[in-house]
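Practice problem 4.
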C-alpha cells in the first residue's frame, strides 16, 4: 500500500470508530477501556499487541453481533493511539440450521464495521470441515447438507425410545469441533473471546457433554465449570469428534490440509462482565448501525441454544402420539404448558408468554403448525416425518432391540420381514426390497445402520437430559429484553 492509501484508510477506520462510539453509553465506553486493558495484559503488554490474534465467533445472533462491535471498537481505539493493534479472526460455522437471515446479519455487520478491507481482520466461514472466506452468496453443497443430516441421525439414534429425542445434539458436537479447529488454522490464534453469561456456558457444556457421550467420546470431565478451560476440554475429546461413527475413509478431513497447528496455544478470555446496560439501550447500535434484524426465531434463541420452539413442540407432539399412545395435541400442549410455567416463574412479562402461544396459533388449528414444522424439518434438515418417527423409536441400537415394537406400531406390514431386517443389519444378505425399505424409512445407508446395530444405547444422566423448563428459563431474559426493545 502507498502512504497516501494508508492515510486514507486510517481516516476511514477512525470515522467508523467515531460513529460506533456515538452509539455507546458512558458505561459502555468505560467497559471498552477495561476490555482494552484486559487484551493488553493477555498480550503481554503494548509492545506485543501487534502480534496478538484473537478469535471471535459470529453466528448472526444479536449477542454475537454486539460482541463483534465491542471488539472492533477496541481494535480501532488501540490503532488510533498506539503503533499497532491486535489482529482479529471472525469465524462462523455453517450448518443445515443456519438461516439466510443470520448470514445477512453477519454480512451487514461486517460492512458497517468496515471489516472487509482491513488487513488486520480475517472473515472466515467453515462449511463441511472446509475453512474459507466468508461469502454471503455461497450455497451449501449437497455433500455438506447430507453430512450434517447423517451426523444428526447417527447422534439421535444412540438412545432408547423412552428418552426424549435431542434433535440438536450434533449441533453442539459440530460447534465444539469447529471451536477446536478454527483456533488451530493458519498459525492459530492467541485467544478466543466470548461474552456468554455463565448460565449459557453451562447449557452449552451440558449439551456438548450429552452429545459427546452419544458419539462415544466419553463426555467431559466432572465439574468442568464454564469456558475457562474450554480448549483443554476440547482437546480431551480428541481431534475427530465423529471417529466412532465413521471409518477414516468415510469422513472428510479438515481442509485445507496441512494448515492446522498440531499444538494450539489458545486461551479463552471471558468478557461477559463487560457487557453492560440493558438491551433496549443497545438496540440503536444493533439495528441502526449494524443492520441487525430479528425474526421470531431469534426471540427464543441464544448463541448456543439450538432448540427451535416450533420444532421442539412438534417433536413432543410426535413423541406423545407414536411412542406414548397419546395425542399429538396433548404433547404440544404439555410442551407449551411447561415452557410457559418456566417463563412465568422467571417473571417474564405476560406479552412475551402470549407471543410464545401465538407462535403456535390456536391449538384447534394445530394441523397447520404441524405441517409448517414438518416442512421446516424437510427443507432445513432434509428429514421426512417417516424418518423422524423412526428416529424417535431408535430401533437399530442394541442389536435392533426396539425394531419389533417400531414395526408393530408404525409398519405392521413389515413384521413378516423382521428376520430379513436383522440379517441386513448384521451385514448378511437380505432381499433388495427389504434393504431399500430400511434405508428409506431411516434415511441412513445400510452400512451405518449396521454400525448402529453393533452399538449400545447411551444412557444419558438425568442431569444432562434436556429439560423444557430449563431451556425456557434460559432463554427467558433474552426473550423479555428483546420484546421490550422492539416494542
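Answer key:
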Amino acid at each position: 500500500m502507498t502512504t497516501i492509501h494508508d492515510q486514507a484508510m486510517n481516516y476511514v477506520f477512525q470515522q467508523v470508530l467515531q460513529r460506533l462510539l456515538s452509539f455507546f453509553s458512558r458505561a459502555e465506553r468505560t467497559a471498552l477501556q477495561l476490555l482494552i486493558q484486559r487484551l493488553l495484559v493477555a498480550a503481554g503488554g503494548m509492545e506485543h499487541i501487534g502480534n496478538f490474534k484473537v478469535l471471535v465467533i459470529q453466528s448472526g445472533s444479536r449477542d454475537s453481533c454486539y460482541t463483534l462491535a465491542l471488539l472492533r471498537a477496541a481494535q480501532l481505539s488501540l490503532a488510533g493511539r498506539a503503533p499497532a493493534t491486535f489482529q482479529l479472526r471472525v469465524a462462523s460455522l455453517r450448518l443445515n440450521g443456519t438461516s439466510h437471515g443470520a448470514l445477512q446479519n453477519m454480512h451487514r455487520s461486517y460492512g458497517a464495521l468496515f471489516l472487509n478491507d482491513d488487513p488486520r481482520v480475517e472473515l472466515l466461514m467453515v462449511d463441511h470441515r472446509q475453512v474459507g472466506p466468508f461469502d454471503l452468496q455461497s450455497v451449501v453443497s449437497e455433500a455438506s447438507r447430507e453430512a450434517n443430516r447423517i451426523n444428526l441421525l447417527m447422534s439421535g439414534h444412540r438412545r432408547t425410545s423412552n428418552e426424549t429425542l435431542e434433535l440438536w445434539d450434533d449441533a453442539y458436537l459440530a460447534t465444539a469441533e469447529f471451536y477446536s479447529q478454527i483456533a488451530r488454522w493458519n498459525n492459530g490464534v492467541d485467544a478466543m473471546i466470548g461474552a456468554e453469561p455463565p448460565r449459557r456456558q453451562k447449557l452449552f457444556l451440558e449439551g456438548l457433554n450429552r452429545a459427546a457421550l452419544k458419539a462415544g467420546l466419553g463426555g467431559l470431565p466432572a465439574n468442568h465449570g464454564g469456558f475457562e478451560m474450554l480448549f483443554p476440554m476440547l482437546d480431551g475429546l480428541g481431534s475427530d469428534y465423529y471417529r466412532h461413527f465413521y471409518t477414516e475413509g468415510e469422513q472428510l478431513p479438515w481442509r485445507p490440509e496441512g494448515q492446522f497447528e498440531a499444538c494450539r496455544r489458545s486461551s479463552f478470555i471471558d468478557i461477559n462482565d463487560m457487557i453492560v446496560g440493558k438491551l433496549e439501550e443497545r438496540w440503536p447500535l444493533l439495528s441502526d448501525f449494524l443492520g441487525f434484524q430479528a425474526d421470531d426465531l431469534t426471540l427464543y434463541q441464544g448463541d448456543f441454544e439450538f432448540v427451535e420452539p416450533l420444532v421442539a413442540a412438534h417433536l413432543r407432539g410426535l413423541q406423545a402420539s407414536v411412542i406414548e399412545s397419546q395425542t399429538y395435541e396433548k404433547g404440544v400442549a404439555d410442551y407449551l404448558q411447561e415452557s410457559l410455567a418456566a417463563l412465568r416463574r422467571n417473571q417474564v412479562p405476560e406479552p412475551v408468554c402470549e407471543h410464545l402461544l401465538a407462535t403456535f396459533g390456536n391449538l384447534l388449528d394445530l394441523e397447520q403448525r404441524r405441517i409448517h414444522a414438518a416442512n421446516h424439518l424437510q427443507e432445513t434438515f432434509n428429514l421426512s416425518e417417516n424418518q423422524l418417527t423412526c428416529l424417535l423409536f431408535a430401533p437399530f441400537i442394541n442389536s435392533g432391540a426396539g425394531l419389533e415394537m417400531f414395526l408393530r406400531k408404525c409398519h405392521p406390514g413389515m413384521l413378516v420381514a423382521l428376520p430379513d431386517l436383522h440379517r441386513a443389519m448384521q451385514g448378511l444378505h437380505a432381499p433388495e426390497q427389504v434393504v431399500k425399505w430400511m434405508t428409506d424409512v431411516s434415511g441412513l445407508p445400510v452400512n451405518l445402520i449396521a454400525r448402529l446395530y453393533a452399538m449400545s444405547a447411551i444412557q444419558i444422566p438425568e442431569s444432562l437430559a434436556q429439560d423444557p423448563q430449563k431451556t425456557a428459563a434460559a432463554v427467558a431474559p433474552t426473550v423479555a429484553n428483546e420484546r421490550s426493545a422492539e416494542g
